[in-house]
Structures are given as C-alpha cells and as structure tokens.
Write a structure and sequence with these properties.
mainly alpha, Growth Hormone, Chain: A, globular, transport
C-alpha cells in the first residue's frame, strides 16, 4: 500500500513537470517570431537566423549533456540546473533589442534548453520500464500543457504585450524545476557509438533514403511552429487566432499517437509513414493558396494525421531498419538529421524567403520539400514490396 502511494506521488510529479514545462514552451516559441517581427522589427533573414540557432546548438550540445549525465549519474540535478538557466536567459532575452545581443542570448538559451527534453525523457523512460506505466501516458501531459498555453497566450498577448511570452516562459520553467528536482534520481544511460556504427548504418540503403525523407518531412513541420504566427497575421488573423490554431493542432496529435500502433499493425509501418507525409505535403501547399481563415483553422486538425502518426511510426521504423546493436545510434542520427539539420535549414531558409517574398511563399517551400519526402517514401515502399516478393519466391 505504501509503495502504491509513493508510485502515485511520483506519477503526479511527472505529470506536473511535463505540463508546466511544455506550457512554458508553448507560451514562448509559437509567438517568438511574431515578437521579433512586430516588437523588435527585425528582418525576415534576421528572424530566421536567430530562430535557426536552437536546432544547430542542439546537435552539438545534447551529447555533452548526455555524457555529463552518464558521468555524474545525477540527471535530476542537471535537469533542474538546465531549467533554471534556460529561464534566466529567456528573461535576459526580453531585455535586449539589438540583433547582435538577441543572437548571443539565443545561443545560451538554446545551449541549456537542449538538455531539458532528453534528460527528462531519459528519466521518464527509466521510470516507465520499472513501474510498467506507459511512457505515453506520462508524456501526454506535455501535449496538454502545450495546447493549453498556445490557446491562453494568444489572448494574453493581445490584452497586454507580446513580451508577456518571456515572463510566462520564465515563471513556468522555474515552477517545473521544483518538480524536476523531486523526480527519480536515476536514468537509463544510452550508449551511442557513432564512430563504429555510422559506417555500418550508411551501408543500409533504405536507412539512408529514410534519413533524407525525414530531413524533408521534419524540417518543414518544426519550422512551421516558428512561421505559423506570422502567416496567420499576414492573412488577417489575430494573436488569439494563432492560439486557437495551435490548440487544435497540438490537441489533435494525442489520439493519433495513441492509435499509431493499431494502424501500423493493420496497414504496415511504411504505408502509415507514406500517408502521414502526404497529409503534411497537402497541408503546406493548401496554405500557399491563401485560403480563408476558417479553413486554415479547420485544417489544423490534420496535424494529428501527419505528425501524430509520423513520430511514433518513424521511431519504430528506425528500430526496424537498424541492427539491434545499432538501435541507439540509428535513432540519434535520425534525430540529428530530422529535428536538428532539417529544422535549422527550413527555419533559416524560411526567414530568407519570407524577407524577399511572403509567408505564403514560405509554405510553398515547405510544401515542395514535403512532396519530395513523399516521393522518397514511395521509393521506400516500392523497394520493400520488391524485396518481399523476391524473398517470397525464394522461400517457395
């Protein structure tokens, strides 16, 4: 009885941590591009460069945090420190108005923020395996926090000032640090041997094609979070409307993530990936034709069909393609290419396109990249069918 009670307390700490952190995250990043454009009056290229820093820093700094966690065996201490320092630099960011100082502040902010998700997820996965509580039921509270934040912050930014995003982000990260400090003290170390594994992985043709497809799919998806606020403003929407759109989009992901395994078992993992990328491509191209605002808000729900299915399916597909001893390496490379390089490239290039043309052109760019990703997944699907047919003929 005592053990069950303690388990319940730990679960509540996880729920509170994820909700608070992602509430702060959702309060900050979706409106940051609007703040830089309307309050600081930066150009599209400057906005793109500032916002593209985070994924680049993530690629190089995340492994350092992982090594520190493995060496110290104190992931909760590192997580708490990262939360507090991220909050500090977010507050300092709000005080700067010059492009150079904003650039420097974003580098430090990204360096500490890059530790938060991998450290907290590592702790949560370890707890999930020991307690037999599904990781998804824990992580779901992050999606709820993000959805709540983007809805509330659009209204608050209209009532007060866009700078409210910094104060909210800072306060909620400090609050989440209070719960992070009380999370379980151990994590599951994930040893990744990139030097010995990368050559072997690069011999797997389907894995290489998948990496390129993930780059073209995840880049626009993540950069969309940066430019959607500007897009809504450009076609006549309000900050409150941005919040509603993100609420619908983020809220639609959870049920599809929950249903992903059943859909994969029924239709096959490659077909699920193909469908998710197709929906994403059509969505970006649809935004380019500048539909009316109600149609834009309505189509936000398809994010569940696209990213809600793609994320769990992609992780399973990486595990399927890679040899067992290279699973961690394969996932690390996928994360670096899709979430890191893809995010950086589309955020930076999107800023340049926006500066020269418009937010509509940014979404045309996203649509073209996602369409190329779709074609690559068609190649993967065709290759898999041919391989299965050859294996079937040989066995018969």
């Amino acid at each position: 009885m005592k053990q069950e009670k303690e388990l319940l307390h730990v679960r509540k700490r996880f729920y509170s941590f994820y909700f608070l952190f992602f509430f702060g995250y959702g309060a900050f990043y979706p409106l940051l591009s609007v703040y830089l454009k309307d309050a600081v009056h930066l150009s599209g290229g400057q906005i793109g460069l500032i916002l593209s820093i985070s994924p680049v820093v993530m690629i190089f700094i995340q492994p350092v945090w992982g090594i520190m966690s493995d060496l110290t065996r104190k992931p909760t201490v590192l997580l708490t420190m990262a939360l507090l320092l991220t909050a500090l630099f977010a507050f300092l960011f709000s005080l700067f108005k010059s492009y150079e100082w904003l650039l420097l502040a974003m580098i430090f902010l990204a360096a500490f923020q890059s530790a938060i998700v991998p450290l907290s997820d590592s702790i949560a996965v370890s707890f999930s395996e020991k307690s037999k509580i599904p990781y998804g039921s824990i992580r779901l509270w992050g999606a709820l926090g993000f959805a709540a934040a983007v809805f509330v912050m659009g209204r608050l930014a209209e009532i007060f000032h866009l700078s409210v995003i910094f104060y909210t982000f800072t306060l909620f990260l400090i609050a989440s640090a209070l719960f992070a400090h009380r999370l379980p003290k151990e994590n599951k170390a994930m040893k990744v041997d990139l030097k010995s594994g990368i050559k072997e992985l690069f011999k797997i043709r389907k894995y290489l094609i998948f990496l390129l497809a993930a780059f073209l799919m995840m880049g626009p998806t993540l950069a969309h979070n940066i430019y959607f606020g500007i897009y809504i403003n450009e076609i006549g929407g309000t900050l409150a409307g941005v919040g509603i759109a993100f609420l619908v989009a983020a809220g639609s992901e959870a049920p599809f993530m929950k249903a992903a395994n059943r859909l994969i078992q029924r239709f096959g993992i490659e077909r699920v990936l193909l469908f998710a990328v197709l929906i994403s491509s059509l969505r970006w191209l649809f935004y380019y034709i500048m539909p009316s605002l109600p149609f834009v808000y309505a189509t936000c729900i398809v994010q569940g069909f696209s990213i809600g299915l793609f994320i769990p399916a992609a992780l399973q597909y990486v595990r399927k393609l890679a040899p067992g001893h290279l699973g961690a390496t394969a996932i690390s490379l996928y994360t670096a290419v899709g979430n890191g390089f893809g995010n950086w490239f589309c955020t930076f290039a999107g800023g340049l396109i926006y500066e020269r043309y418009s937010a509509l052109s940014v979404y045309l760019f996203f649509g073209v990249l996602s369409s190329l990703s779709f074609l690559l997944f068609v190649m993967i699907n065709t290759f898999s069918k041919k391989t299965a047919a050859v294996q079937s003929s040989v066995s018969s």
